[in-house]
Write a structure and sequence with these properties.
428 residues; D-Amino Acid Oxidase, Chain A, domain 2
């Protein structure tokens, strides 16, 4: 059986790998000239298995108000609101309650933990280097109130047997010595012992080589124009280089998935939340982060990648506007300086990047069947595509093959959104 995978980011590449392991003949098509050239290219580098949390939380509406009052909001909304943005904001708001938060976080953790297991298994099979560090991650708290808020998360973490430890300020400095200069500002932290870090682009490139060895074909520099339907099935994918056909099809186009799917009656709520990152060289090893630090209050992540530091964050709701925002550069630099004032070299050669995180209102990806019997989805991973990639790819491969999956599919398919199916078909 032939499978055509649309998209060669980290999700499309891992999907191709696991489909090839199932014995399928796989072709991957992408508009870029290599794998992981868009959202996967310069992400935060965090494999945040334990820190998989929905954006939509009970505290988000009040936080938004506070952020806008002090003028330092990590969430920026284009004043010219599009209908698409309004829909996304409203649907996200509907998830800002305790019950939805617990459900959504549990679903995310289910996929994230499964992904970690598959990464460990893959590393035992393949000699793969991606600047990986397995030194845990640290979520910082600036006040007792933040620690109290995190207790709801701890209850859910225990359900999934996730190892963590609550640290005071001294414990945070022991874990990350570079925080010594701001120790008096830190209230404490939550350390996730088994979280990893790594360079997503390097990983994708290494897995791409393995895919080639397994016979996977990649059609780069190919723009997808539309999906053709015949007899309630996908018959072909039209590109600027002609039609591509297969027995089954999988859409892993990230934020661009809705554009391709809407013409065939599938309306998934995946929104392009624009994020930014900067990458700077390390000045002093001991003064730099050793792994990953999450400042949840200011919504930034700081990660050590070899001899470099990557700072990522900000959520910009501006549809598909890909312009680099100078204020974002300054905000990320300030975020790094506030935590690690002596970590990075002063240089004008800062790598400044932006990409679209394919976000759903409940922060859970969309994996599985569609109303068309030979069309599948693997998209909508938000800020956690790298974290969830191995689990999502293997789930997708098992679903296509009709195999029993190793984890529950409850709440993961597009069928959870009743408004998404605008066809007259039942789910395949």
């Amino acid at each position: 059986m032939n499978v055509l995978v649309l998209g060669a980011g980290i999700i499309g590449t891992t999907s191709a790998y696991f489909l090839a392991k199932q014995g399928y003949k796989v072709t991957v098509v992408d508009r870029q000239d290599s794998v992981a050239m868009e959202t996967s290219h310069a992400n935060a580098g965090q494999l945040s298995y334990a820190f998989s949390s929905p954006w939509a939380s009970p505290s988000l509406p009040l936080s938004l108000l506070k952020w806008n009052l002090n003028g330092t909001s990590p969430l920026v909304v284009n004043p010219k609101l599009s209908l698409n943005t309004i829909k996304f904001m409203y649907r996200t708001y509907k998830n800002c309650n305790s019950n939805s938060y617990e459900i959504n976080k549990s679903r995310m953790l289910r996929i994230a933990n499964y992904s970690q297991k598959n990464l460990i298994d893959l590393e035992s099979e393949l000699d793969i280097y991606y600047e990986q560090r397995k030194q845990g991650s640290l979520q910082l708290f600036w006040s007792p109130k933040e620690l109290e808020k995190a207790k709801q998360d701890m209850v859910i973490l225990k359900k999934f047997n996730i190892q963590y430890e609550v640290l005071d300020a001294d414990g945070c400095v022991d874990a990350e010595p570079g925080l010594q200069y701001i120790k008096n500002k830190i209230y404490g932290g939550l350390r996730f012992i088994n979280d990893f870090t790594g360079n997503c682009y390097l990983f994708s490139s290494e897995l791409y080589k393995k895919c080639l060895e397994m016979g996977v074909k990649f059609e780069f520099n190919t723009h997808i124009e539309s999906i053709s339907i015949a007899n309630n099935k996908v018959s072909a994918v039209k590109t600027d280089r002609g039609e591509l056909t297969a027995d089954s099809y999988s859409v892993s186009l990230g934020s661009y998935s809705p554009r391709v799917l809407s013409d065939i009656g599938i309306d998934i709520p995946v929104y392009p939340v624009k994020g930014y990152s900067i990458t700077l060289p390390v000045l002093s090893d001991l003064d730099a982060p050793q792994s990953t630090i999450m400042d949840d209050k200011n919504k930034i992540g700081i990660t050590r990648l070899g001899d470099f530091i990557r700072v990522a964050g900000i959520a910009h709701l501006t549809d598909y506007n890909s312009n680099l925002r100078e204020k974002a550069l300054h905000s990320l630099k300030e975020g790094l300086d506030n935590l690690f004032p002596h970590a990075a070299k002063e240089t004008d050669d800062v790598k400044f990047w932006t990409g679209f995180r394919p976000s759903t209102p409940d922060s859970t990806p969309i994996i599985g069947a569609t109303p068309y019997s030979n069309l599948y989805l693997n998209t909508g991973h938000g800020t956690l595509g790298w974290t969830m990639s191995l689990g999502s790819g293997k789930l997708l491969a098992n679903i296509v093959a009709g195999n029993e999956t190793e984890i529950s599919l409850e709440g993961i398919a597009m069928s959870r959104y009743k408004y998404s199916n605008k066809t007259n078909l039942n789910y395949g």
